[in-house]
């Protein structure tokens, strides 16, 4: 039953009439806010019109990057006009994330997504030490701008297990550091499940990227794992992921990171997120 619709059944109680039909709330209704990556919007409109499109599709916010070429002024204007929040900036693997931190503060965001890249010419230990130094250097500016730096689990990182990523975050010893947990990346290049990553990262998780490469419509079935068993026709066992997120009382932003498109496509992504996140 679609929890976003009124129940159609009522119970007559004597002459008092029919009971009002309540709206069913999902497990994470009111706890997770829906977002997507700005690059997923594939329509030529003004920024305000694009944000209006997101609002109609039932999104609450969006993430941008320096590569999008958006000025802080136009972003703020679009947010004021639509109430679509720009909650974060995607930086990636570059060593200097100061510009991303500044942009995040200027648009009213709270986090910058950072990757700890694997350099082929370095050993695991040297990659670990190098990335720790890079992120540590960025912490003072992040703290000054009231922005958190979130490490994401990606294919190009040397952090190949949830345990390694948790240790990396813990060694930074800063409340400005957290985890950006990507549900799909856990399966694509590791032998661990999405729920295992969620369990190990636990309280470190600040935001979540929603992705399932094995899904027929919102993924790429050609990339589907032969061993991963999902609950939505793909690879991610969403019920187990939700269980782990609930165990740490997760609340915050979840961003779709799948193939984008026009208004109809983005509306479909939004509805899919409702389903897998139980919103």
Can you give me a brief rundown of this structure?
This protein is α/β, with parallel strands linked by helices and 279 residues long. The protein has nine helices and eight strands. It starts with 31 loop residues before the first strand and ends with a helix.
Number of helices: 9
Please give the order of strands in the largest beta sheet: 1-8-7-6-5-4-3-2
The fold-level CATH name is: TIM Barrel
The proportion of residues forming helix, as a percent range, comes to: 25-40%
Q: What does the average pLDDT come to?
A: 91
Class, according to the CATH hierarchy? Answer: Alpha Beta
Stretches where pLDDT falls below 50 for ≥5 residues?
1-21
GO molecular function: isomerase activity
Protein name: Xylose isomerase-like TIM barrel
InterPro entries: IolE/XylAMocC-like, Xyl_isomerase-like_sf, Xyl_isomerase-like_TIM-brl
Domain Xylose isomerase-like TIM barrel: 51-261
Task: Give a description of the structure.
The protein is of the alpha/beta class and 279 residues long. It has a single domain, classed as TIM Barrel. The protein contains nine helices and eight strands. The chain is globular, with a radius of gyration of 20 Å. Residues 1-21 have low confidence and may be disordered.
Record the SSE blueprint:
Layout: E1 32-36, H1 47-56, E2 61-65, H2 72-82, E3 85-92, H3 98-106, E4 111-114, H4 124-144, E5 148-152, H5 162-172, E6 177-182, H6 185-188, H7 194-201, E7 205-210, H8 238-247, E8 252-256, H9 263-277
Parallel strand pairs: 1-8, 2-3, 3-4, 4-5, 5-6, 6-7, 7-8
Domain Xylose isomerase-like TIM barrel: 51-261
Pfam family, one: AP_endonuc_2
Protein name: Xylose isomerase-like TIM barrel
């Amino acid at each position: 039953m679609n929890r976003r619709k009124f129940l159609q059944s009522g119970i007559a109680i004597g002459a008092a009439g029919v009971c009002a039909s309540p709206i069913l709330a999902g497990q994470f209704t009111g706890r997770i806010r829906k977002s997507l990556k700005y690059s997923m919007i594939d329509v030529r409109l003004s920024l305000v019109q694009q944000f209006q499109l997101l609002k109609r599709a039932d999104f609450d916010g969006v993430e941008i990057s320096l590569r999008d070429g958006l000025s802080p002024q136009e972003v703020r204007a679009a947010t004021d006009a639509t109430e679509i929040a720009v909650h974060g900036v995607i930086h990636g693997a570059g060593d200097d994330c100061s510009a991303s931190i500044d942009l995040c503060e200027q648009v009213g965001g709270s986090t910058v997504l950072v990757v700890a890249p694997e350099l082929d010419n370095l050993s695991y230990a040297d990659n670990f030490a190098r990335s720790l130094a890079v992120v540590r250097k960025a912490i003072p500016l992040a703290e000054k701008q009231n922005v958190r730096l979130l490490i994401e689990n990606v294919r190009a990182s040397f952090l190949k297990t949830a345990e390694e990523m948790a240790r990396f975050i813990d060694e930074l010893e800063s409340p400005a550091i957290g985890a950006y947990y990507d549900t799909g990346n856990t399966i694509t290049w590791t032998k661990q499940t999405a729920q295992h990553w969620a369990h190990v990262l636990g309280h470190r998780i600040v935001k979540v990227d929603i992705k399932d490469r094995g899904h027929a419509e919102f993924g790429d079935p050609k990339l589907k794992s032969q061993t991963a068993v999902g609950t939505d026709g793909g690879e991610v066992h969403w019920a187990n992921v939700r269980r782990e997120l609930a165990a740490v009382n997760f609340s915050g932003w979840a961003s779709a990171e799948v193939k984008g498109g026009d208004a109809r496509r983005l509306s479909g992504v939004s509805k899919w997120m409702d389903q897998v996140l139980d919103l």
